[in-house]
Specification:
The chain is of the alpha+beta class and about 270 residues long. It has six helices and twelve strands. It binds biotin. Biotin binds near residues 59, 63, 74, 76 and 130. Biotin binds near residues 54, 75, 129 and 147.
Length: about 270
């Protein structure tokens, strides 16, 4: 697999708090599907599936996630959290925190977290996290946490809209090694997941807020029952967004934030890919 050294990664993660089992593929439909199938077949927590390329990569809210072969770090991890199913929504925020911390460990771009789990650089999306529950016969409902982080866009044909709204480590002037980043993110994931299991999102909330983007700003929250404009106040102990609206604070459990101000054009990009 391009750029990912599974042997090095296995050795690096050997002493980790999660017993990782690593599988890497050149091309899959979606790493989420492979981990989901493995979960249904009884695979233990800690299974991680990497892919160099996906033909049907998924993003949040029914969107697709596409990345040219070898341009991104893409993986899904199987978690089997104990406790209430309702609390699991905040696991995706934990995933975003692990990505931002992993990037910092390998001296990648300094990224911020846009609730619930986008990782941004200068307002552009560098990485995203997708948390999906495995609904099936099992009572414990495993969670599949997928991560996609753009590493290398220089010299690649990236569609214009993606280049405008997104970014990659090399474009941010902080290229990273795929294997080192994978190790750092998984290490942080194991540690943050342990804390989350012990104390819920409250246990990591302060650290999450330290990396938060857009707090204090006017935003529009797109959620199940529509759009709501207000000022993003904070994120609760349960991982919900607290939005200040003209009629008082509103708690948003799930949704998407948009800001009407768009990121500035990069010098020389002139709005095209
Ligand atoms: C988002 O920002 O909307 C979430 C993007 C998640 C993408 C990753 S790439 C690896 C894993 N497999 C998928 O199909 N999606 C996730």
């Amino acid at each position: 697999m391009q750029g990912l050294d599974v042997g090095v990664l296995k050795r690096g993660l050997a002493g980790s708090q999660l017993a990782f089992e690593l599988r890497a593929y050149a091309l899959v439909a979606s790493t989420q599907d492979l981990v989901r199938e493995a979960a249904r077949a009884g695979a233990p927590e800690g299974l991680v599936v990497f892919a160099d390329e996906q033909s049907a990569g998924r993003g949040r809210a029914g969107r697709s996630w596409s990345a040219p072969a070898g341009s991104a770090l893409m993986f899904s991890i199987l978690l089997r959290p104990a406790g209430s199913v309702a609390d699991r929504a905040s696991l995706s925020l934990v995933g975003g925190l692990a990505v931002v911390e992993g990037l910092a460990l390998v001296r990648g771009p300094k990224a911020q977290l846009k609730w619930p789990n986008d990782c941004l650089c200068g307002g552009r999306k560098l990485a995203g996290v997708l948390a999906e529950s495995v609904i099936g016969r099992e009572a414990d409902q495993p969670v599949v946490l997928g991560v996609g982080c753009n590493l290398k866009w220089e010299g690649l044909e990236i569609p214009a809209d993606l280049r405008e709204s997104g970014t990659a480590c090399d474009l941010e002037g902080a290229p990273v090694d795929r294997t080192k980043l994978a190790e750092a993110v998984l290490e942080r994931m194991a540690e943050r997941y342990r804390q989350w299991q012990a104390g819920g999102f409250a246990a990591v909330r302060e650290d999450w807020l330290e990396h938060a983007a857009w707090l204090g700003e006017e935003v529009v929250a797109e959620h199940q029952s529509g759009r709501l404009a207000g000022r993003a106040l904070t994120v609760s102990n349960g991982g919900e967004l607290i939005l200040e609206t003209p009629t008082g604070p509103v708690v948003i459990a799930a949704g998407e934030l948009v800001r009407l101000r768009t990121p500035q054009l990069r010098p020389g990009v002139a709005g095209s890919g």
